[in-house]
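Annex B. Sample input.
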Amino acid sequence: FLTPALPGIDLSTVRFEILIALSFITVLIICFQLLITNARFAFIKERSFLPSYLYLFIIYTIPELHFFNPILISGVFCLLAINTIFDSFEKNNAILNAFNAGFLTGIAGLFYLSVNLFVILIPISLFNLRGKVSWREVVTPFIGLLLPWLFVFTFYFATNNTNIFVDNILNYIKFKNVSLISDYVLLGYFGLIGLITLISSMFVLKQYDEEKIRVRRYFKILFFFFFSSLIFLIFPFVSYEIIVLAVLPISFFITSYLSFVRRRFWAEFFFILIIVLSFSLQFVFEWRRAG
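Annex B, continued. Sample output.
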């Protein structure tokens, strides 16, 4: 828990079966959270398991994510932070929501360092939801973000391992991962997902004026979150694993399109295409390993 996002814990010493089980359990938790989020805030007009199915299929297309990756834990806490922000709608005072969202983001950032940058979105999202934001609601998320890091630093300091804490952060920043960029098969697959996401986003924007005010603002926050996830790709230490976060809003965008587009052919075609390609690519990757 203390340093899983920083290169301090050696997951290579853990049995493959345990890593696979941890990955599957964490992804199931995220899928369950997606269902709760939709049921609670109802920004998709009907309850559906589709966001969870889409998330599961898209995430598990990447072979590396079949095994446990710390960013999966970050995904759990990021979704909790988003729910906390959504819950501030029409509240006169959202200081507690701002603090809790910052605190949850800080915990997520312990598992994946780049996630800490999401704290900037908290006051922006609060302003989007409520039309106003006080200086306390701007400052409080950053205080909440710092608390988990303060606890961790205190642990390292008390055990006289402060140098390890600093080295882990520096090693993370220096780490360069280009595994997704160099894999043209995965690039092609996620290029298709990007195209479907673009079509779904245009559909959501087309229906924007027909939605309730709160639903419009929820979707706007999801767009903020999605584009921020893509911006992370400019960092050399960010690669395929960022999909875990980017697909959270994507699953809602595509679900909205597949559920309500009038021409059902395209909805069924895109859904079947995602499933077939997700399964087919597993055989491609297995053939590569065998070769």
